[in-house]
Amino acid sequence: MVALAEHERRDDGRRYFIQMGIAFLFLLGLASVPLVLSDAEKQFFLSEGGPIQVFSAAGYLIAMATVAREIPSSKLFRLSYLLIIPMAMCLRELDFHAHFTTDNITKTTLYLSPDVPLLEKLFGVSVLAVLGLSFYALLKDQYRPFVAGLRRGEPVSVAVAAAIGCAVVSKVLDGAESNLEPLGIHISTTYTSTLFEEVLELGIPIFLCIAVFAAFPRNSSNR
Predict the structure, then answer these.
(1) How many CB atoms lie under 10 A from the CB of residue 93?
(2) Measured between alpha carbons, how far is 10 from 77 in angstroms, rounded to an integer?
(3) C-alpha–C-alpha distance, residues 88 and 128, integer Å
(4) Which residues contact 194 (CB under 8 A, 6 or more apart)?
(5) How far apart are CA 192 and CA 223, in angstroms?
(6) Separation between Cα atoms, residue 176 and residue 195, nearest integer Å
(7) What 8-state DSSP symbol labels residue 108?
(8) Considering the entire predicted model, what is its pTM?
């Protein structure tokens, strides 16, 4: 995606940075919404099928649909990882990684347990293999352009970096309790930490969408 980005005019680049600023303010505002909600409404706000989860899944679909529209059909297979990865992230957001198997496909218990059917294990291995190959192709093609763009302050790379930052911090919040326990630090998961985790997870597709829009600023018919 970064490697496919066209040369943008300075005013175009500024527009995407403004969008990123608006997205950041939107996420901050979203994190403050529970202040005016009842306890039941707070639970729905962060629940499975709630607004944040639905918007997160929709964001990945928008990014994927835009990439599918802009990539020439002759390059679609070669760059299929740009579709596979956001689709996988969308499905994970909807908890599909645990819907069709006895356990989460990312957990070793699914593959080591004698009680799990072989077909489920093969399914999990196949999914992980496809994702592994997709991420390898992504890094092989896009890592250097991404780093170069980040050094030049290009909006595509900056937006991708913002999405990665949201993913890392949300993951830290998600595993804070178990990660700190070996250090003798015992904390309990609070609504506030869960709220920020979910809001940051929403930030991932939002910034990815901005990156995609910046990478393909004009309709393919005008290129």
Answers:
(1) 23
(2) 32
(3) 10
(4) 46, 173
(5) 46
(6) 14
(7) T
(8) 0.83
